[in-house]
Amino acid sequence: MPDRDGTPTPVSDPYVLAALVARESGAEVEAVHDPDTGRWTLEWTDGETVEGVERAVRAAGPEAARGLRYRRRLSESAVALGAVRLATSTDGSGPRPRVDTTAVEAFWRDVRLPSPLTEREALLVYGLIHQVHDDHRRNEAEPEQICHLVRQAGLAVILLRTRAALTPAELLTARYAGSHGHPAWRYCLVPMDDARLVRAVDEDRTATADHLRAALTLTAGLPDTPEAVTSRLRARLRRCG
C-alpha cells in the first residue's frame, strides 16, 4: 500500500525498496523485474552480502521481503582475487584446490566486498584480468574465463610477469620447479623444499650469482646443510665477482 500522500512505500514499490536498501547497505542496488514470472530481484555488484541486503529489506517492513529474490554479482577483480586465494590456499601436499565460479562465489558468500588485498594479490589480480582481456580480445573478462586461466596456465606465469619481489625460495623454485617435478609452484605458488633447492643450485653448473646468493640465504635456516656444500656455493659466488 502507498503512503497517504500517494508515495509508494518500499513494500509496494521494488524501486523504492532498492533505493532504501542502497542507502542502508552502501551497495548500488537495482530492482529487476522478470516479466515471465512476475518476480522481482534485487541485484548489485560486490558490496554487501546477500544476507546483509536481506536484513536491510526485512528492516524496511514485515512485508518487504515477500517474494523478493536477491543476486550479488561479482566484479572481475573480486572473481580474480577469489581465484587467487583459492589457488594459494594449499601447502602443495594434497590435491589442487578447486577453482571455478561456484567455488569463488562460495568463498565470498559471507564476505563484504571489496576485500582488502596485499600488494602481491593486487599484481596477480591485475595480471589475470589483463591476460584474459588479451586472450579473448575484449575489455571484459567472464568469471569462468578467469577461473579457467588459473586452472590451466597457473599463477606462476602471471606472477613472473609482474614486478613482484620473489623470496629466495621462490626465485629458485621458478628456475627448478619444472625440471624437478613440482607443479604446485606453477598452479598454486607453493615453493619447493629449501633443502631440495640448495641441492639443485649446488648441482647446477649454470646457476647465476643471484641463484647462488639465494641458496646461501636458505642455508642459514638449514643447520644440517653440509659444510662442503656451503663452501662450494660461497666459492662459486666469489668467482662470479
Strand order of the largest sheet: 1-2-3
Helical segment count: 12
Approximately how much beta-strand content do the residues carry?
Answer: 5-15%
**Cα separation of the termini:** 84 Å
> Whole-number average pLDDT?
91
**What's the helical proportion of residues?**
40-55%
Low-confidence stretches: 1-8
What does this 3D model show about the protein?
Helices cover 52% and strands 7% of the residues. The longest helix has 18 residues. α2 links the parallel β2 and β3. The protein has 241 residues and is mainly alpha-helical. The termini are far apart. A 3-stranded mixed β-sheet has the order 1-2-3, covered by helices on one side.
Write the layout of secondary structure elements.
Blueprint: H1 14-25, E1 30-33, E2 40-45, H2 50-60, E3 68-73, H3 76-87, H4 101-108, H5 119-136, H6 143-152, H7 156-160, H8 168-176, H9 183-188, H10 194-203, H11 209-219, H12 227-239
Parallel strand pairs: 2-3
Antiparallel strand pairs: 1-2
Helix pairs in contact: 1-2, 3-4, 3-5, 3-6, 5-6, 8-10, 8-11, 10-11, 11-12
Tags for this entry?
241 residues, mainly alpha, three-stranded mixed sheet
Short description:
By secondary structure, the protein is mainly alpha-helical.
